[in-house]
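Course assignment 3, question 2. Fill in each field.
Student: A.L.
Task: Predict the tertiary structure for the chain below.
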Amino acid sequence: MNQNEIKLALTSATTFESYMLIRNKFSQIEEAELFLGLYPIAVSSQRHGPAFNAARLLYELNPACQIICKEAIAAMLPEWDISIEEVPFYLCKQFGVRQVSDEVERLRSASLSGEEVARLNTIQYWSRIAEQKVNV
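Answer field:
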């Protein structure tokens, strides 16, 4: 299933029932293919597609991340919608809160726009929330 097919399926998930059907179908997809199909959609602006549904499936199905933590965070900086906490929660499940936090701090030294710094701050915020959810 290619990224366009995934995007089309996610766009059609307008009810809980249709979302669950897609979730069940996607749970049968090989992990690498699933990650490569969902992650770029999840970290893009909701103006460009079903970012929330992609992020939700990414978090729920938890396919193995196919890129290193630093690259995954860097991919979030251009367009990720900061209200979609499922993406940083997913990264925390994959890499651990400590590694996500460490990579956020390393990325702060790069030349970033104000929006990218705001996204890094929000990733850090959601990482702390993820840590609290684990420790409760």
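Instructor remarks: The mean pLDDT is 93. Residues 3-135 form one domain.
Grade: pending
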